[in-house]
Amino acid sequence: MPTGATRRPIIGRHPLATSLLAVLALWLGSTPGASADSRTPVPGPPAVSSAPRSEPVSLREIPVPPTAPSSAPGSCTSPTGCVSAVAAGGFLPDSRTVTATFTYAGAPAGSPYAGSQLVLVRTDGRLFPDGTPWKCVTCGVPAANREGVTGLYRYAQPFRDGRRVLAEAGVVDCSPYPLTDPRCTPAVTHVYPVRWNVTPDGSGPGGSVVGLKLHPDNVHVGWNKIIRPSAPGDSFDEIAYFGRLRFDAHPTTGTPLAPRYDLVKVTGLYSADPALNGHFFGVDPRRPTKLRYEQRAAVGEFKNFTGDGGSLLGIGNTRSVNLDHFATSLTTGASRRLNDDPGYSDPATSSPDGRWTVSMDVRYRDRFLFMAGLPGVPPLVDMLPTGAAASAGYNIRTRRLFQPYLIGPHRDQQLNSCTTGPCSTLATGPGSEADSPFWAARADSSWSPDGTRIVYGQTYSGPADCGPPFDLAPCPPSSEPGGRTSRLMLAHLTSRGPLHLPPVRPVSDAVPWGTPYRPGDPDPKRPHLPAGHYTLDGRRGGHASVDLVENAAGTALTRISVTYTRYSDDGRTFLDGTESAENAGTASSPVTFHTRLRVSGEHTGTRTTSEPGGYTVSPLSSLQGSYQPVGTMTTVLDGRVYAQPVSYS
Description:
Elements: E1 58-61, E2 83-91, E3 97-104, E4 115-122, E5 134-136, E6 157-158, E7 164-167, E8 170-173, E9 190-192, E10 194-196, E11 210-214, E12 220-227, E13 237-248, E14 260-268, E15 281-283, E16 291-293, E17 302-305, E18 311-319, E19 322-329, E20 335-337, E21 345-350, E22 357-361, H1 369-372, E23 395-396, E24 399-400, E25 403-408, E26 411-414, E27 423-424, E28 439-447, E29 453-460, E30 486-492, E31 515-516, E32 532-537, E33 543-550, E34 557-567, E35 573-582, E36 591-601, E37 605-609, E38 615-617, H2 619-623, E39 633-637, E40 640-643
Parallel strand pairs: 1-27, 10-14
Antiparallel strand pairs: 1-30, 2-3, 3-4, 4-5, 6-7, 7-8, 8-9, 11-12, 12-13, 13-14, 14-31, 15-16, 17-18, 18-19, 19-20, 21-22, 22-25, 23-24, 25-26, 28-29, 29-30, 32-33, 33-34, 34-35, 35-36, 36-37, 36-38, 37-39, 39-40
């Protein structure tokens, strides 16, 4: 059973945000070859004080309609439809009703219960007028009420007015009625597409919008844009943006010429300053051969906003090849690290008061320690796109390995450890438990407005992606009703009283440290530090000698070499040795590491690569759902060996 104990972090005091790119790694993962399905606590320095106790959590599965017997029309006889998949959304203002995405299947031809739909689900025992705890909001919405809408109803985020929901497909609006009101019927429901104008005259199609998230002020949103290579030498990248939602009932340009929401007053969350583009390192203007560190603008891949609306959530490097979450002020750009574990952390959502997050994490398995486990290594080589090199840890082909972690003041705990309160699911067979490693949490979780409940979704592993050699035990078929391989889970933080917070006031459209976007602007090229020889002084002694090499055009770094001499940021752990990373200058190029590092002091250990070839991994193969590195990388820490995950294709 996965442990629910509090964290024992390896603390690194030299945070670095890398803007690249968890998205490159969406399909990779496996378990360590030396210890499949390991749940050994992460090694780290002794706790400063006694570990805080985990808080009580009551966990249960949320009921959903019957599972569709098949996709054949008529195979489902339920009057309110059958489902083949479910995904979690967010809470309505009552903190007891959640939105969800149901994929309906098997209904008779012509039934409204078909395909991806937005649904409300009661979690407190109340029923809708038809006698069920669920209500399909978009089933049967007339085509005239959803003109120009494409995409699914995933990532359904309710507005606080209780009448609207922001989803991937657009804004679902039942005004003037609350979504739960019996008068909110398909005939009065509208779905409005969300469009980003990216052409000067407004006539072209909308721009790419990925991961659209609603700001707590219910006026602004954040999103990412994927920049794909279009020519040899182009780089794969992901850029974050912030803008305002504006409803246009009668648009005269662009498509569709139907009521829609436009994204306006847009700011790119990037800067011409290399130190404000996820790397934290800049050249000291008074000493041009010295690097300086400033923890700002740790956006990387935009994830969400803090509950108080003052900051955005992103991912970045706190140490070499170690992605953690940061909260970055929309006003100042100052970033603060939210979690500090060497395991990979990705989707995150904030509590309404901004003091806690729920993060999807893989720290319960030692999958990243072969690269990120050595303490005290500043993330200098991460100025190259090294994110793909660590991506072996959180997927196995299409299987996600995330579990939800509650992260807050002085405590991290696995939300579904099933050690601090009741824990139940609708399944009955082996491998069905709420804490089963075969059931993986998916993006995104969501907090109730009163701060006492969290909803998240899970999916079950396919037989090709679980069991040996990836897990110690074989995985049985899902025993959810009808063999369903997705489910909705509700965590109740039983010791917490409800929050009573005022509505978040609208924030400024301006992000002072960002770059204003104007329709027609080209995709930005991330700046980098100039080629040359530099020195980075440790905060508590020693130094790092750094050599940066650019490509012939001077458009990107291609090689970073570092020599450490008694380098220390904490005065307890000291780093010596050499490391380098190199590629062809694009985010889609294979990255090769050569590493000979050694730590001494409070911890002893090494990180090494096989030589003479080093360790090479390709982000292109990760997009295809494989992990086929050339060479090896191994970390030994305090006598324990951490090997890289087993390869697969």
